[in-house]
Amino acid sequence: xxxLAVVVQRMVRPDVSGxxxxxxxxxxxxTQMLANAAFGLGEAIVSGRVTPxxxxxxxxxxxxxxxxxxxxxxxxxxxxxxxGTEERAVSAPDRARFCxxxxxxxxxxxxxxxxxxxFGCPQDLEWAFEGGTLHVLQSRxxxxxxxxxxxxxxLTVVLPPTSLAGPSIAI
Length: 171
Description:
Blueprint: E1 16-21, E2 32-39, H1 43-46, E3 53-58, E4 65-69, E5 75-79, E6 85-89, H2 92-95, H3 102-119, E7 123-130, E8 133-141
Antiparallel strand pairs: 1-2, 1-7, 2-3, 3-4, 5-6, 7-8
């Protein structure tokens, strides 16, 4: 007998959406996450229609935001009630501000860490905020990470004691 599952979901009409890598793809030490965000549906980001805001997030501790870069976010794509989507211009004041505040970034980071712990490996998440509520839309493993570089910052080097007469060489 074959099992079958059907997933029925409500369409999220996001204020802001984006993608997050629980390990920044170029961070071989795996100490940072990388998030992209834009107004409306994430389709604007994944299709390349906008340059999103970019956030480098610390995986642990504070401050959460290590670096942020303001994207142009010239357009947004929104779902329309009759079905389909529409592209609209983003106002100049909205283009001049970041999509996400500190509280949203903390919620995003903490949720992403729980998703990563659940699946046991670094994840590529698609997410959306609707009315202040974070929705995880999809998660999949990141498959193209460079090899992890060990953290040698806590390494203690112990050297053998040396002779006061200096090194000796056996012939």
